[in-house]
Amino acid sequence: MSQSGITEYLRPATLHEAWAYISGGDPKVKLLSGGADLTINAPPEVTTLVDIGRVLDRAIHTGTDGAVHIGAGATLAEVLEHPSLAGYASGVVPEMMVHVGSPLLRNFSTIGGHLARGRLSDVVPVLIALDAQVTAYRNRSTIELSLAEYLAGRHNERPHILTFVRLPALDDPVAAAYLRIARTSFDFPILNCCCRVDGSADAVAGVHIVCGATPRVAERANQAEAIIREHGLNPSSIAEAGRVAGEEVPTGSGWVASADYRSHLVEVLVGRCLTTVMERLPI
Amino acid sequence: MRVELTVDGRLETWQAKPGDTLLEVLRAHGYTGVKDGCANGDCGACAVLVDGRAVASCLLFAAQADGREVTTIEGIGGADGAYHPLQQTMLDAGGVQCGFCIPAMILTAADLLTRNPEPTRAEIGEYLSGNLCRCTGYVKQIDAVEMAAAILREGRVDG
Amino acid sequence: MADKFTVVGTSPHRIDGRSLVTGKPVFVDDLPKRAGLLHIALLTSPHAHAQIRSIDTARAGAVPGVALILDHRNTPERRYTTAGQGFPEPSPYDARMFDTKMRWVGDRVAAVAADTLRAAREAAALIEVEYEVLAPVLSIDEAMAEGAPVIHDEEDALDIWDAPHNVAAHVVAETGDVEQGLAESDVVVDVTTETQYAQHAPLEPHVASTYLDENGRLVIVTSTQVPFHVRRIIAMLFDVPVHSIRVIKPRIGGGFGAKQEVLIEDLPAWVTLQTGRPAQLTYTRGEEFISSRTRHPMRIRVKLGAKRDGRLHALQMDVLSNTGAYGAHSLTVLSNVGSKTLPLYNKAPHVRFVGDAVYTNLPVAGAYRGYGATQGYFALETAVDRLAEALGMDSLEWRQRNHIREGETSPIFVALGEGREGVEQTITSCALEDCIRQGAARIGWAEKRGKRERHGSWVHGIGMSVHMQGSGIPVIDMGAATIKMNEDGSFNLAIGATDLGTGSDTILAQVAAEVLTVPLDKVVVTSSDTDLTPFDVGAYASSTTYVSGMAVQRVAEDVRAQILAVAADMLGADTGSLKVEDERVTGPDGVSVTLDKIGLRTLYGEDQHQIGATASFVPQLSPPPFLAAFCEVAVDEATGQVVVVRFVSAVDCGTPINPRLAEGQVEGAVANGIGYALYEEMIFDDKGRPKTPDYARYKIPGPEDLPRLETILVESYEPTGPMGAKSVSEIGINAPIPAIANAIHDATGLWLTETPFTAERVWRALQNRGGRSPWTSSSPWLGAGRLAQTRKRR
Predict the structure, then answer these.
(1) Which of B16, C37, C565, C570 has its CA 20 to 30 A from that of A101?
(2) A3 part of contact set with chain C, CB < 8 Å
(3) pLDDT band at C772 (very low <50, low <70, confident <90, very high)
(4) Residues of B with CB below 8 A from A103's CB?
(5) Is there a contact between B41 and A39 if contact means CB atoms under 8 Å apart?
(6) pLDDT tier for residue C74 given thresholds of 50, 70 and 90
(7) How far apart are CA B59 and CA A34, in angstroms?
(8) How far is residue A39's CA from residue A41's CA, in Å, rounded to a whole number?
């Protein structure tokens, strides 16, 4: 149903022009890149849309250092299909992206719009596990910060436009894996999980264990990570990490799943994810 | 506001309200082959091609289609009303029951076949995952896409 | 059998196919909007149970473009039922167009008709209503509890079984003495199952459009399964003559029973009659979930008693049905729980069926494909598996031992009709034995049953279930058809029968074409127009192929006889010596005349008269189709997820008139049943408010969620059906719940008794089974038994 409260649709020609529209912090003015959410979920007070779909960079490429640069205007389908993502960290981004929504959404929904929304996501846990950095544009200057910091809200308070996502260059060997549980294939996740290990199974240089749809967007299982860091990646440590993650990750009850069940799924998915990561790490 | 777009090869210039969705303006201007099943992005019945890619038209503002090429079911066939292979095979395979999901299903499958000419049944199901049908159980619809893919690969397009 | 036919038994394209694949404007909302159209928006109740103390529409009426606001003060007060059933409807007259009491969240408060939908919605939001909120009754148990609020306390309702106790309907049927029978049995099983609220979720929501024609008659164009019932019920509701109304059904986007109802037509119709202007109401998807109809949630207890050798000796079924806020279909669905299940195991001498349909302050349950049998088969067919296990028998063999066969009858056929006594009948066609045999071979029953094949933490299992349904309602349903002949040897076939996407226009044309010996495109179909087509009850109770089909066969035979009479004259031969084949009538000496010459002569030549006829058919029987379902599931013991790996349906529908369309009916029904088994569920909060009113939260199966459903058409020949056909549209939906439940048992030992079998439910059942369920990942050497039993909460 069309948003009858929307009375103005602006098409700025530049990033700065777009930012100027939102710089006042007026809650009636909203940025639109892909769409999707705003056509059905615009808060009632929104009167003005600022379409930045054609202003945002949408290119995806791998830098000489191996970092992957993604313009915030890239559609989720472009992220899914681009060879740069297939070749990065076990291809965990497309492994996840194929489950996000459906092609009818992915074909126009943008990565920037998705991250700016920051709710109920399969994308966020994976990007957190990959230490994704985002670039925010504000008044002719940009700053780069980690996605984790961005979502923690410190930067969100001031009007800005997300312009880029960068997946950092990988120094050590890295393997990652992603799993989700939902009722059907085109459904919100009940729980999802992304695990990433740097180094080797015996000499772990870094661990990320991130669970989402708990229903919080993304939770790091720090204690579980510590177990892997300390004991390496083997069946025994994986089982222990799963168990600990199940206890430390906060879960909530809702009509689709209870907290108890979600906690159990954390243990199962973390165990399975880490096992797959172990299999993907070069010996 | 003014929205200018090409629909099924026709240049259209429409007056739209800023909050109008692409689905609404298409249907309001007679493109009734685009269906409204939920207006919430959940069922896929409103799918059209925008610059060749299948999208849920209820989730796009009309203004986002400005300057773009939109294809509806009426624009998918050949000249002189010739069927697109998917229209033919959907009938041949028995994939049409009530028909409400069909225009969107065909358009989405057409998008799939332009980028994956030899999809497996799993890949077809995956690309159509946002196109709901309550009548058929999808068996014969997926059959139809396989059949159309074969026809297109062999370059045989029946009139 | 089918190979003696030319058109019947083949699978030509559906005759409306071109319009559907080219996106022609054939659905109600596609049709050109008439000048002056009024759009209607609803105001529905935010409370599950409340009295309306006052309504103030002053602010609403001031919105520019508003033409009329309807509420209980300016609309007919008479009680009726919205159920699309024959007259007299076997449902309580407990509804009003607009009531002063709201009985569920979604009940009608008011309706606004305005120049634009935007204005109508704006105005509806400005209507001020004062409610006296009452305590809601949100479950069967609450409704039946001592001192429960009375939901239907109005004085003018009719045919409510026991309104002060919230009982809409009550059914008892008995043969023998079931207590004695159970006592005499060597083995008894006792199973109670519960099914959930589910919704049809047709892709096209309810929509109705009305206008006055050039001569001031009311025309209703509506997405309905029951055009003739719509005409009658609207006429009765408005106290206008039936002949002042015309109802037309164009193409509709699915119904599944939700549209076997006079759900919304009254609103635009009333607006048109009051204003003279055309009007339209299209349900939003939210309204389709909340303010439409649903399946009856049920609690069903089945007790089976058998002798040591496996013979079923006693069968008891007790049903509690939640009919929601109003009683449409409450009695008939309740009766069907027993009438379509119990005769399947007809040889038990002691059978008792007791059922109650209970009101609650929740969405109104109505007709939904399967119509009570779906819920009943969950209880019955899982009880059968338990009984077989207790007897130490293969459940397939047990079923083969006990199921009904051709030539047999069941006392239940008479004891349980649709809301009243049924009709005695003997099974005149039954290929169930063959269905079981073929289905079992296809799934690999002998090879896979009991093997619990493992892949990591996924364990596989095989289950089966068998079913019968009916073909129409005997003695009550009627379908009619009219044929007239044209000068080119073609025919117009006018049928009241209602194609809701099922393809009935096509198969009925095939029947006519077969009898008249013409190709399918020489039969031009007009259907579902109360002015132009003869009567038909509409599309429900799996009636169209059998009932409407027989009417078509009869009228075509009549027309063929007329053709022969003319040909006899033209050829100078006796009608008895003539042969009709391939659009030509041939005399004994080999001289022939083609149908077009006959047609031309009768319209323009000599002895001019219109070759044509109308025929009706009232079935005396309801010959059941039969189905044997075989399912392979994989259960992930670590997460409780259930995946249907294979689903095989072996179906006997007599002669399949159009095999591909028949398969399509089975496949679609099975798909719907799988969703109902695994994840479809309407959930409410403690105030009766819906939590799942959209496709995002109420999940139906998508293309990635189902295996390639397998259908085996096993032919029999029903002598009382058109070309040997029986109907097939409902039966498939009954199979998935019991077949999946039985397969889950084979895989895990669990007996699940509550649907849907969500992952969490299955996981909890596995936990409660006791012992540790080992789980492994894709690497088999990950240690087992690592599952902690308790969660430490932070």
Answers:
(1) B16
(2) no
(3) very low
(4) 54, 108, 111-112, 126-130
(5) yes
(6) very high
(7) 9
(8) 6
- Residue C77 phi/psi, 5° resolution? -95, -10
The answer to whether residue C214 scores a pLDDT higher than 70 is: yes
Cβ pair A49:B18 closer than 8 A? yes
Write the CA distances from C316 to C175, C321, C383, C647, integer angstroms.
10, 16, 11, 29
Q: What is the pLDDT of residue A36?
A: 79
The single-letter code of the amino acid at C509 is A
Instruction: Closest CB to B64: pick one of A6, A53, A105.
Output: A53
Chain A and chain C share a number of CB contacts under 8 A equal to: 78
Q: If you average pLDDT over residues C464-481, what whole number do you get? A: 96
Residues of chain B with C-beta less than 8 angstroms from the C-beta of C18: 91
Contacts with A239 from chain C: Cβ below 8 Å: 782-783, 786
Average pLDDT over residues B15-44: 97
Residue C793 pLDDT more than 60?
no
Three-state helix/strand/coil letters over C84-96: CCCCCCCCCECEC
**Looking at beta carbons, which residues of chain A come within 8 Å of B52?**
none
Query: Which residue type is seen at C223?
Result: S
> What distance in Å separates residue A195's CA from the closest CA in chain B?
24
pLDDT score for A119: 74
Closest CA to A182 of B119, B138, C702: C702
pLDDT bin (cut points 50, 70, 90) of residue C784 is very low
Q: Which of A188, A141, A144, A184 is nearest to A168 (CA)?
A: A144
Q: In this predicted structure, what is the pLDDT of residue A282? A: 85
Cross-chain CB nearest to A268 (options C639, C764, C779):
C639
pLDDT score at C724 = 97
Q: Is C311 helix (H, G, I), strand (E, B) or coil?
A: coil
Instruction: With a cut of 50, list the residues of chain A below it in pLDDT.
Output: none
Residue B93, pLDDT above cutoff 80? yes
Q: Is the pLDDT of residue C745 over 80?
A: yes
Handedness of CA C86, C88, C93, C95 (dihedral sign): positive
- Which one of C692, C777, C786 makes the best mutation probe of the A interface by having the most chain A beta carbons within 10 Å? C777
Task: List CB contacts (< 8 A) between B19 and chain A.
Answer: 2-7, 9
Whether residues B83 and C21 touch (CB distance < 8 A) is answered with: yes
What value does the mean pLDDT take over residues B52-59?
98
Q: pLDDT band at residue C421, thresholds of 50, 70 and 90?
A: confident
* Cα–Cα dist C757/C687, whole Å: 25
User: Min CA distance, B92 vs chain A (Å)?
Assistant: 26
The per-residue pLDDT for C1 is 46
Provide the whole-model pTM. 0.96
Q: How confident is the model at residue B80 (pLDDT cuts 50, 70, 90)?
A: confident
- Nearest CA-CA partner of C624 in C200, C333, C336, C315: C336
Strands C579-581 and C584-586: antiparallel
Our CA-based measurement puts residue B113 at a distance from the nearest CA of chain C, in whole angstroms, of: 16
Nearest beta carbon to residue C782 from set A4, A238, A267: A238
**Residues of chain C found within 8 Å of residue B101, distances taken between Cβ atoms:** 203
Q: Which residue on chain C is closest to A188 by alpha carbon? A: C696
In the block, residue with structure tokens 């809200």? A153
* Confidence at residue C418, expressed as pLDDT on a 0 to 100 scale: 74
Classify residue B118 by burial, with Cβ atoms within 10 Å: 0-12, 13-18, 19+.
exposed
Residues whose CB falls within 8 Å of the CB of residue C515, separated by 6 or more in sequence, listed in order: C553, C556, C557, C560
Q: What is the CA radius of gyration of chain A?
A: 19
Instruction: Give the three-class secondary structure for C794.
Output: coil
Q: Does C775 score more than 60 pLDDT?
A: no
Work out the minimum CA distance from C756 to partner chain A, whole angstroms: 11
Q: Which of residues 69 through 128 in chain B touch A, CB cutoff 8 A?
A: 108, 111-112, 126-128
Tell me which chain C residues have a C-beta less than 8 angstroms from the C-beta of B91: 13-14, 17-18, 21
